[in-house]
Amino acid sequence: MNANPIQQRLAARKRTADQLATDLIMDCERAASGRNSGRVNPAQWNGTDWRRYVHAAAHSPAALHLSALYASIKEIEAGRVHG
Question: From which domain of life does this come (predicted)?
Answer without folding.
Answer: Bacteria
